[in-house]
Amino acid sequence: MKIRIYILIFLAGVFFSCGEDFLDRTPISNTTADSYYKTADDMTNAVNAVYSKLASSAQYGSNFLQLMEYRSDNIKNNNPGAGGGVLYQCETFTDVPSNSTLSATWSSLYEAVYAANIVIGRIDGVTFKDETLKKRLLGEAYFLRALTYFNLVRLWGKVPLVLREVSVDESKSIKRSAVSEVYTAIESDLNIAIENLPSGYASNSVDLGRASAIAAKALLSKVYLYEKKYTPARILLSEITEASAKDGTPLLLTAVKDVFSASNEMNKEIIFAIRYLKGNSGTDHANWYTSGDSDTDLSVITALYTSADKRKDLMVLQGSGTNKCPSKLYEAPTGNRQGTDFPVLRYADVLLMMAEVLNEESYTADGLAFTYLNAIHTRAGLTAYSSADLADQSAFRQAVWNERRLELALECDRWFDLVRSGQAITAMSTVGYTIQEYQYIYPVPQKQIDIVGSDILDQNDLYN
């Protein structure tokens, strides 16, 4: 049974302002808040509210696809009128501070931070009969806050770092923190999450889909990879790959198509996903990467798969009319709405990260890094690499990046991989866009700057 974390949004509606973010939130009555967060159920609902924010259209439900995947060289949005033109801005690198998609996403991310901070700050004041539950909820809050800040820092660079509940007046004086400080906070949150979360959940558990210690380790490994901290990343990744068989232990499925089957969600390869449920208003989502009209052009990424590559079929459009969707993320819709989960972390990504960090530490001809890379490459039906194909560190590095592009296509990794690997300018030029380094991150939403003033919330360089 799917965990119902995605439908428990009561707290978000009652205690969270409809304002743009923590900077312009309607004041919350301390008496009301203090009277609510009293029981274990209250804390559970508070954690569920964070999951709901991640699942919203402002994040994984829609906007992240625009900001993270369309931005890359994988796919194109060919409709300049979509969303009043704001989506096309993200595609063509013409985004401006007034872009409403950016503002909505910024707001939603900080609402998630706010919800997590409530749990972290108040949970010790609540009496729990089940201390294991208390520990898990705390770990979930730290994990979700870390994931939220990881998305914030990758999208905007410097961002306000808010690690506790703050008043409206306090929020108006919080300046952006350096990128390094944000990453330090993310690392700290994930280490706490690892200490508090269970390793995983049984396949029949009602909690399947919640954050686990393995998910926290996988996310922290990715954070280390972005920071080029290869040895700490390798140590954590090794803990995942060498874990003994038990609840939550991930594995690579034999057939890549089975990873994305709508009837096989939360399978052993999925480490963490954003969960949805078709047929319930507010728990489903619109078709992702709708390709029946001019909005989405998948021709670039589709052309990269050879005929032997089994992942090519995942790019094939399903559905009819203007509601076609790549089979990788497709479920027969009801009223043009789907319930497919969105994969955030999966075991294939772990193996590719392991191949990358081992190579960055030291290239070894036909060494262990080849084993991890080939696990993904051969599952796709392709011939295994050897040192005859990848003769040095540079060649192996490029092979890993290419494998990531094909394996993780449409999963919101490609743009960030281009940026962290220094390939973004060259890659985008091949699909017709001339960009500059300042466009690696987005402009801070002007709506947020107007609330507190540019002396508190400054704009990213070269954005007007």
UniProtKB/TrEMBL annotation:
The keyword Membrane applies. It is found in: Cell outer membrane. Pfam families: SusD-like_3, SusD_RagB. Keywords: Cell outer membrane, Membrane, Signal. Transmembrane segments: none annotated. InterPro entries: SusD-like_N, SusD_RagB_dom, TPR-like_helical_dom_sf. The keyword Zinc does not apply. GO terms for cellular component: cell outer membrane. SUPFAM superfamilies: TPR-like. Its main location: membrane. Residues 21-225 form the SusD-like N-terminal domain. Signal peptide: none annotated. Residues 333-449 form the RagB/SusD domain. Belongs to the SusD family. This is SusD family protein.
